Amino acid sequence: MAFEYTVFEYNPYKLPDTLLRAIGLVITCSVQSENIIEDAIADMLGMHIVPAKILTTHMSMQLRTGALRSAAHARWGDQPEYKEFDALITRVERAVDQRNQIAHLTYFTHPADQTTHSSKTRARKSLKVDILPASAASIEAIAEEIYDSGLAIVSYLGVRGIRSVS
Fold this sequence. Notes:
Elements: H1 17-45, H2 49-56, H3 61-76, H4 80-103, E1 106-109, E2 116-124, E3 126-133, H5 136-159
Antiparallel strand pairs: 1-2, 2-3
Helix pairs in contact: 1-2, 1-3, 1-4, 1-5, 3-4, 4-5
C-alpha cells in the first residue's frame, strides 16, 4: 500500500496578502502595547521618559509587566485601583502571548483548495504538530485585542491624571 501525502506551499511570498497584513498588524500592535507599558512604568514612578526608556527598552515583556505591577502596588497598595489595574496588565499579557503564538507559527497554503493553515511543532517527550486553519479575520481580531488592551492602560491612567510622561 502506497503512502499518500500532500505537499503544502510554505513560501511566505505566496501567502494571501490579507493574511500577511493581519500578521504584520499583530506585530505592530504588540510593539505599540509594549511601548505603552514602558511609558506606564515611567508614569507610575514619576520618571522622565528618557531615563525610563533607558531602563525599560531592553526588558522582556514579562519583566516590564512585573515592574509595572510593582510600581502600581507601590502607588496604590491593595486598594481597588491596584486590583483593577492589575487586571488590565493581565489583559495585556494575555494579548501579547497571542502575538507570540502568531509570530512563531508556520503558515502554509493547501495546494488543492488554496486554504491557509498554520502549524506549530512541539518536541517535548514526543513530536507533536498541530495544524489549524489560519484566517486573516481571526488574526486581525487578535491584533485588535492587543491594541485595545494597551489603550485600556492609557485610558485607566489618564482618567486618574497619572498619564503625564514628559
